Structure formats: C-alpha cells, structure tokens
Amino acid sequence: MNLKNKNILVTGGAGFIGSHLVDRLVEEKPKRLVVQDNFFLGKERNLKEAKENFPSLRVYRASLTNYKKTKQIISENDIDVIFNCAVIPLPTSLVKPEWAFNENVEMTSNLCRLAREKMFKTLIHFSSSEAYGTAQKIPMSEEHPLAPRTAYAASKAACDDLILAYHNCFGIDASIIRPFNTYGPRQNEKTYAAVIPLTIKRIEEGKSPVIYGDGLQTRDFIYVKDVVEATIKVYNSKKTRGKILNIASGKETKIMDLIKEIMRLLDCKKKIKFEAPRKGDVRRHCADISLAKRLINFKPRISLREGLKETVKCYS
Questions:
Q1: What CATH number should be reported for the domain whose range is 7-184+222-249+288-302?
Q2: Residue range 66-101, pLDDT digits in tens
C-alpha cells in the first residue's frame, strides 16, 4: 500500500490539519491531489506551500454536505483515496449545537454512501478524542467508553460508529484516526480558537493569558506533523482497516503548565486570569497509543516544548 500515482481528495484540506496533510501528501508523489473545503475555518493561505510544490493542485469551494457536488468532484478526478478532515469544530457546537452535530454527521454519511457506491476505494477519517469525554481511567485506550460532553463530541462518536457500521455491513475500506489535542502552525487563532493559539494571540496583544477553570484539567497534546505522519502510515497499513487508532503523545499535561510554558516562550510577565470553566470541558485526557505502535509503528517525534517553539514562531 502506498499513495504514489494515486488520485487523492482531502476534505477540509484548507484547514489546520488538512493543509498540513496536503503538504505531506505532495511528498508521496500522487498522480492527482484535490482539496474540497467550505472555508468555514479553512484559509487559502494555508495551501500556499502545497500550490508551490504541486502546481496542479485542484481546490473546490464546496461543502461536503452537498452530496451531488461531492460526487461530481470525486467522479471528475477519478478519486482513489479520501482523507476526511472536514469538520465543524467543538467551540462552534457550544454556540450552534444542532447545526454542528447535523453538519458533521451528514458530511460523514455522504462519504459512507459514496464509498458504498464504489465512487472511491479507501476512506481515512479523522475522529476526535472528545468522543471519549472525561477519562474514566488513564491511559485511555480505544476500548475506553464513549461519553461525549458536547454536541461536537457526540457527532464525532456518531460518525465513527457510522463508518464502522458501513465497514461491517457493506465492506467499505475505511480506517479511523482519533487524534488527541493536535496543535501547531496554522491552527485557527480567531473565532472558535483553541487554547494554544488563543493564548499566544492574547499575549501578543499585551493581554493577560486566561485559564478557564482551575488549570488542573489535563490534555494529551500532539504536534500536527506527528499526526499527519501517522495518517500516511494508517493508509499504508491494511491492518488498520475497520479500526480506530489513538494518535497522541501518551503524555498528560496540565493546562496550567501549558500556559506557563507559552508565557515563558513569549517572556510574558502578566498574571494569569481565571474565568469560569467552559461548558462541556473534559477534566482529564491521556491516550494509550499502544495499538498505533503495534499496527503502524507509531512514535511521536516532537516534544511539547519543541512543538510550542515552532507554533509561537508561526503566530509571532
């Protein structure tokens, strides 16, 4: 299994993880590389490097919820493989829960339908650790119970179950990647921003960093380039089909420690502001990555400190 000379579609390919994946896919020397994105959070500038290195890159501004348009894109480009990074993110679901849930499920449902119709061969789908909810035991393996705490998390859990159902009933060729807290350059820093870009932006603007809750809640942070490297390996391994793989560092980091490290990198002397906990916030996350180690020889290479340095450079 390899991606050389394949026709590849990356949905959500102008977004954070999607654009890094597109950059990495260029190195695989595909025959055709296509991006489909509704540009809800995606940005044209995220694809600048990919367009320079792969001038024939095709970009379609279209929602994955549009079944007919998506089918047309797949057909016109004779797509072999789809990497599904398209998503309405967690913070949006705190404002528009019904819409976020429905959009995410419909996008995945359309891909499952098209896979069943043999419009393409392989689906590699991005899930989220949020599907687990707060850790009931540490570390969290793929067998950990699903207890989503937000509409976003519920949609990701539903999407995963839907793909596995299509795999089991109709034999679609699909694998599911479940990244934990992915961070790095190009992560959205504006509306619906995550903690790392939001903190960097606040400090750069001369404001105090903010912690929602007591700061003792934990996450398992994984650098985006480690995630996309794992993604290629997941495609290349037939052993991953019909399975969910945690992709993470396997290390638990307190939000308080994360914020202090960003402050150190930016030489910020201001006091941290504490605000009320966010709705649906999970308390603990730390992944068991033994399955990924076994099936794809996964090993994260970039430490949190090193990754934060690269991320800060991007936003500074």
A1: 3.40.50.720
A2: 999 999 999 999 999 999 999 999 999 999 999 999
